[in-house]
Request: fold
Amino acid sequence: MKSKMTDAFQSRRARKSRSAAARRRKRRSFQIESLEDRRLLAADLTAAIDLDIIYGALSPEEIATIESMTPDTNLSTKTPPLTSPPLPSTADTGSAQFLPDGTVNGMPTDVLTIVLDFKDPGQPNTSDIFGFGTSTFDVTSFGFAATDFDLVANSILAEVNQDYFTELIGTVAGPVGQDLEIDFIIGDIGTPPPGISEYYFVQIGTGVGAPAGVLGVAGGSVIRNVGGTGPNFGIQVGDVVGSIFTDAIVGLGNLTPANALTSGNLAFTTFAVSGTISHEMGHTVSLSHVNDVGSIQPTAGAPPVMGTGAIDLVNQRRIEDREFSLSGLDGENGNAPIQHVQQLVDAIGLHDIIPNDGEQIRGVKFNDRDGNGLRGAN
Ligand SMILES: [Zn+2]
Reply:
């Protein structure tokens, strides 16, 4: 009996001591979290522009001037949701068939969707939420034939999907049977994607009124903040939340080979453009920048998607396959620790991959009237 009571007492003491240790651990971790939260909340609560800048191209003062801009929905070209049910007859989607019930091939598609608008010849100029415009994505400046437009656009979309899905398989953003609850598709500003209730555009083409040295812009946390809330700062469904300035990308110097982006090399062109797209869309879902040095990506040695020339990402790294960072430091915020893959999960969330569906929905082109992979000017 006595021994049993002693045992119980000792076990209670042990429990007490364990729980005190747990409280201490909890207190410590709470303090760490609250420091991080303060930083992230500060970033989240301030409507801001986020940039991808060429290494060494701008002075800190010039960067600061651009960074003082704030997103304004009124500056964006508008693509309001359809007020009547979508008309599937206008959607020539190849193997994927949009149906009037808002599904593709009978499977639900209605998740947060980013529409990549590669500006094709004949499309009118459009404007993002900062008032920056884009005109045609000139693939001939990259060394391709004009008829290679779809080839290049599809390759870039495929690599964005690699960044957000394939390369994250096995991380917290890609557990078995799940992936990030977001889709990327190709489409046109002005044409709402059928069956999708929350969508935003990124315009990809020659900058119109874009600042020199800037490869891309996007509104920080405009779609989701780190807590998963959004849209924020008055941004509306259908807004153009970012721009990719392909004329700045093709002009990147200090590359080996020197003609990497002008010789019609599909891999280099794809990585240079897709890296900037994934980077800018990362900003719209709360991600900050990360130092290239010391960052850890799923593939050892891969450059970080959220690296920037404003810190230490040299141009050569932009023609390599960049990946989101498992860990790293943000040199623009006092070397604050970042875990961008986890942050993507926090901001976007995960969903179950529907067998024979999830991978097929991604990459769907809509309103592809002439069946060439993109909607044409007609
Ligand atoms: Zn950036």
About this structure: The longest helix spans residues 2-45.
